[in-house]
Structures are given as C-alpha cells and as structure tokens.
Amino acid sequence: MAISVGGSNRGTIAEVNVVPLIDVLLVLLVIFMIIPHSQFGLKAEIPQAAAPLPPERAPEVIVVQLLADGSLRINQEPVSWESLESRLEEIYEMRANRAVFIRGDAAVEFSQVARVIDVMRSAGLGPVGLMTPGLEQESLN
Length: 141
Description:
Blueprint: E1 2-6, E2 11-15, H1 19-38, E3 63-66, E4 72-74, E5 77-79, H2 84-91, E6 100-104, H3 110-122, E7 128-131, H4 133-140
Parallel strand pairs: 3-6, 6-7
Antiparallel strand pairs: 1-2, 3-4, 4-5
C-alpha cells in the first residue's frame, strides 16, 4: 500500500498496490494447476452386481436294490455281486455324506440283505438305512 502526501488536494491519499497480490495469486494458481497432476490416488474398484447362484442340487440318494431273483441294482443300474464293493467305492469316492439305503423285495431273505450290508461296511459306507414299502409311500406323499 502506498501513501502520497501533498499534491493538488493537499491531503493524504492512500492507494493499494495490487502488483504483489497479483504475483501471489499467479503463483498459487500455478501451484494448484500442477499439484493434482503429480498426485496418484488408490485404484477405485466399482462394486459389481453379484452373479446369480446356480440352483442347489439336492443330494442324490444312493439306493441298493436287492431283487427277488438275487440280482442287484444301484439306483436302477444293474450291478453284479462281485463288482458291488468296487462300484460303491467309486460312487462314494468324492462324497462327504456316506449314507446308503437298501431296498429289498418282499421275497428276499434277510441273509442276502446282511451280505449287502457287510459289503457296504467293507467299502467304508455308513450309516446304512433299510427302505420299506411303508417308508416309500410316506416319502411319496
């Protein structure tokens, strides 16, 4: 700020010297123009919509069926007595639930059912459930 004394009005005149203020303003303008270009922030990841989950599959129940003629089936697939243990091991190789069910015809002797249970136990399966006609009717209703 400058002050001049005297002059034609014979008084004190005060006038503002704005040149230093303009210099400071230009320096600040240059600083604020340069600083944002030299700074790097963190990479922002925008949230994405979640992918729809596949429908849950119901765990398939394994049923060993013992027919009246002495033949065996695993879920309607014929299997021989000799290959029963290896087939069961193959089915349950990657399963956590090792439960298995036996369904026998009415004319089947219990000794054959016990033989199938022994094969299942030697294959490392358990618990073993016995399916009866009454149980099947309840599960269908």
